[in-house]
């Protein structure tokens, strides 16, 4: 349990701002009227052709369905197309609406997957400009924190991680990110408390248990650290078993 801090992976909160209640993804939402017999529904040119502002008015576009298009591209790792879909969703949404904010948050996630952290930062900042206290604000803040950290703006990263927890103290990913950044700054006791909060709120996976184990080890609580490591290994083993059963 002496891994270098730079070697630790950090679970980016992909899509945390999107409710789990979305219907099955489709690249052919009915409102857009794309004929799959005429075009390839995953052709990156289709969205441009169908949604060109000179041909389609905002009233004709169902923004949530367009967000689903972007999420569908995310599912198949077509992140460039996803950024385009989310940007169009933001542009067609009512100005400064919650739908526009959600689109900007997801655009930031897609840019993060492409490691375009400067553009991700811009997307999250635009989302927060629209509303810094909405249902998507905590997600925007915690994702912005990680993008800033990746971009080398580490002091700002912790500030936004703190802000995410203030907005939604029941958001486990925000507590995890806060713990991660505190740990990076050597504030181990505070980091451990943050990890414990995330776990209490339901975030129990191998990554956070390993982070907690490292914090415990640094505090000299070796027995508890070993217990956390064993729990993480058990979770990973169960996941591998489930994956093997699927095949």
From TrEMBL:
**Keyword Coiled coil assigned:** yes
Using the record for this protein, list the coiled-coil segments as residue ranges, or answer none.
205-245
- TPR repeat ranges are 63-96, 101-134, 138-171, 172-205
The record, for InterPro entries, names: TPR-like_helical_dom_sf, TPR_rpt, Ycf3
Q: Which species is this record about?
A: Halonotius pteroides
Annotated region (Disordered) at 1-38
Thylakoid in keyword set: no
Q: What is this protein called?
A: Uncharacterized protein
Protein keywords: Coiled coil, Repeat, TPR repeat
């Amino acid at each position: 349990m002496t891994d270098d801090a730079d070697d630790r992976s950090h679970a980016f909160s992909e899509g945390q701002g999107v409710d789990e209640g979305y219907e099955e993804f489709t690249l052919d939402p009915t409102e857009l009227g794309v004929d799959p017999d005429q075009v390839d529904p995953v052709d990156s040119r289709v969205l441009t052709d169908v949604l060109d502002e000179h041909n389609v008015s905002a009233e004709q576009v169902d923004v949530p369905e367009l967000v689903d298009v972007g999420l569908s591209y995310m599912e198949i790792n077509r992140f460039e197309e996803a950024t385009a879909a989310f940007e169009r969703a933001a542009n067609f949404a009512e100005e400064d609406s919650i739908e526009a904010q959600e689109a900007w948050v997801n655009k930031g996630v897609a840019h993060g997957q492409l490691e375009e952290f400067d553009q991700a930062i811009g997307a999250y900042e635009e989302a927060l400009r629209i509303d810094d206290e909405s249902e998507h604000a905590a997600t925007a803040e915690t994702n912005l924190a990680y993008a800033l950290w990746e971009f080398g703006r580490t002091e700002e990263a912790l500030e936004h991680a703190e802000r995410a927890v203030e907005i939604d103290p029941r958001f486990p990913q925000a507590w995890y990110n806060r713990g991660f950044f505190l740990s990076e700054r050597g504030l181990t006791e505070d980091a451990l408390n943050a990890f414990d909060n995330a776990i209490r709120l339901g975030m129990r996976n191998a990554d956070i248990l390993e982070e907690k184990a490292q914090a415990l080890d640094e505090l000299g609580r070796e027995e508890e650290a070993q217990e956390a490591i064993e729990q993480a290994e058990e979770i990973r083993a169960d996941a591998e078993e489930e994956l093997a059963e699927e095949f």
